[in-house]
Amino acid sequence: MTADGRLPVIVGVGQLRSNRDKTLDGAREPADLIADAVRRAAADSGAADAVLARTQRLDLVRVICWDYEDLPGEVSRRLGISPTETDHSDIGGNRPPKLVDLAAARIAAGELDVAVVAGSEAAASLGAFLKAGVEPPWLMRPGGPVRFAREIAGSEYGIRHRLTRPIRGYALYENALRAALGQTFADSQRASAQLYARFSEIAASHEAAWNRTPMSTDEIATVSPKNRMICFPYPLLMNALAAVDQAAAVIITSLDAARELGVAAERLVYVWGGAGGADSRDLLDRTSYSRAPAMEAAFDATLAQAGIEAADLEAVDLYSCFPVVPKLAAAHLTLPADMPLTLTGGLTAFGGPGNNYSTHAIANAVGAIRGGAATALVYGNGEIVTKHHAILLGGSPHPDGHVGRLDPVSPPTEAPPSIVEHASGDASVETFTVEYNREGEPLRAVIIGRLTDGSRFVANAADDDHATLATLVDQQRESIGRAGRVASADDGRNLFRLG
Questions:
Q1: Which of 375, 382, 396, 395 is nearest to 302 (CA)?
Q2: For residues 457 and 427, is the Cβ–Cβ distance under 8 A?
Q3: In whole angstroms, what is the distance from residue 496 CA to residue 474 CA?
Q4: Which of 391, 306, 381 is CA-nearest to residue 102?
Q5: Would you say domain 425-498 falls under CATH 3.40.50.2300?
Q6: Which of 184, 213, 245, 490 lies 20 to 30 A from 115 at CA?
Q7: What is the pLDDT of residues 429-448, one digit of tens each?
């Protein structure tokens, strides 16, 4: 039970987009965008400079477009604040709800009174500088690029077969989910396109959205030169849009501090709490590609500790870097078919600022609560359906105060199949994706398969095996479960050929 004065509340939120035209004159660096978002959040609280002066902790979501030696220190300097604790988080789209939840837990425990969570990306402006061949006049030169490949694949075995990038990993899940649901390709694609068309309508209502022109279902579903296939089954308009300049910030305080600062009662949004966990970072070590056990456990724990059912939720924002993520989340929560699955607009229409999308989602959830919703849930996802955190916000205090948990939840134990590194013999397709070139032609395949004894392997199609590539992407016939043969090649890869 949290004492009344220690109840964690969100008092202010701020968000923005910048340099939509991608000009050099309009470019601003990430530290400047973050400082702007924090000032907007402070103004939103009504306490402005007073709340900033009391900031004890500053958590920044990991910026990936530019490398700073001390980003929290630089943001603090620009804001004129001196927090006693700062951090620049690790990578993951789950970080915003997790950081807000952690700050709320510490406030409830009496360890903090005022905390700020914020983040930004300036990839659009950075791209404009690179295109012009001009060095950005920003605080520091970038360090080495963020190495998503090794960090996400989880093994050299996966890297060898290009089982590395999110555009491939999420497509593996989408294809597996389609087959598990018994859907045709056309039905699955239309469901994804309808979902994202609705998302784009919601994004159009937000000033901070990167794209504010709604897109139709047909526009999203139809492959064209402007909407080329990236990794089967996802064309461009089903991929997160990372080349954006956006920032968002959330200010969390104790109820006592909010009262002392004079924040109006109608501005307060209560942080009920949440839960998070992680599935294996190695994609080959997953029990299934049509479910996310740690995601499900995070949802179950979040709702159970709050004593509510999914049917009680009045607003949700489900992470949506690719359609399969909100599909998986909504299916587990059994949300009504007509319930919008975003408050923000999704990472394609609204924009996907690196790890920071869900900070915008939390800001919009605060708006939904202030607009009359009793509860709102925000879910963030990191890496490739790997890291998960859900958080509940309420328009009134939870009877038990903050009910989040800091220890990661663990899904029921289920052993994945054994993995064979050098596979040979008869096999079948468990899931797959095919990457396309810029001319719209199938380029390479990543296949996760099963040998006849049930063991799992990853393979590619041979470079000259155009028949296998063409068959895999045949929209009239499902390739999941199809038989073929796998053999080890001299370069250390497994090569799979459909029979």
A1: 375
A2: yes
A3: 17
A4: 391
A5: no
A6: 245
A7: 999 999 999 999 999 999 99
Matching residue, tokens 């030696």: 69
Mean pLDDT of the region 223-238: 97
Does residue 411 register a pLDDT over 90?
A: no
In order of 82, 295, 327, 375, 492, the CA distances from 303 in angstroms are: 36, 13, 19, 11, 46
Give the pLDDT band of residue 145 (cuts 50, 70, 90). very low
Residue 143, pLDDT score: 62
Q: Is 247 in contact with 385 (CB distance < 8 Å)? A: no
- Average confidence (pLDDT) over 165-183: 97
Instruction: Please give, one letter per residue, the 3-state secondary structure of the chain.
Output: CCCHHHCEEEEEEEEEECCCCCCCCCCCCHHHHHHHHHHHHHHHHCCCHHHHHCCCEEEECCCCCCCCCCHHHHHHHHHCCCCCEEEECCCCCCHHHHHHHHHHHHHHCCCCCEEEEEEEEEHHHHHHHHHHCCCCCCCCCCCCCCCHHHHHHCCHHHHHCCCCCHHHHHHHHHHHHHHHHCCCHHHHHHHHHHHHHHHHHHHCCCCCCCCCCCCCHHHHHCCECCECEEECCEEHHHCCCCCCEEEEEEEEEEHHHHHHCCCCHHHCEEEEEEEEEECCCCHHHCCCCCCCHHHHHHHHHHHHHHCCCHHHCCCEEECCCCCHHHHHHHHHHCCCCCCCCCCCCHHHHHCCCCCCHHHHHHHHHHHHHHCCCCEEEEEEEECCCCEEEEEEEECCCCCCCCCCCCCCCCCCCCCCCCECCCCCEEEEEEEEEEEECCCCCEEEEEEEEEECCCCEEEEECCCCCHHHHHHHCCCCCCCCCCEEEEEECCCCCEEEEEC
Q: How confident is the model at residue 150 (pLDDT cuts 50, 70, 90)?
A: very low
Q: Which CATH superfamily is domain 4-128+243-394 in?
A: Thiolase/Chalcone synthase (3.40.47.10)
For 267-294, how does the pLDDT look when each residue is reduced to its tens digit (9 = 90+)? Answer: 999 999 999 999 999 999 999 999 999 9
pLDDT at 69 over 50: yes
**Tokens matching residue 397:** 């205090």
What pLDDT does residue 148 have? 39
Residue 198, pLDDT score: 98
CA dihedral 180→183→189→193, nearest 10 degrees, is -90
User: 281 exposed, middle or buried (CB, 10 Å; 0-12, 13-18, 19+)?
Assistant: middle
If you average pLDDT over residues 232-237, what whole number do you get? 98
Measure the CA–CA gap between 160 and 283, rounded to whole angstroms. Answer: 13
Which pTM was predicted? 0.96
Domain range annotation of the chain:
4-128+243-394, 425-498
Q: Report the alpha-carbon distance of residue 62 to residue 271 in Å, rounded.
A: 22
Is the model's pLDDT at 140 over the cut of 80?
no
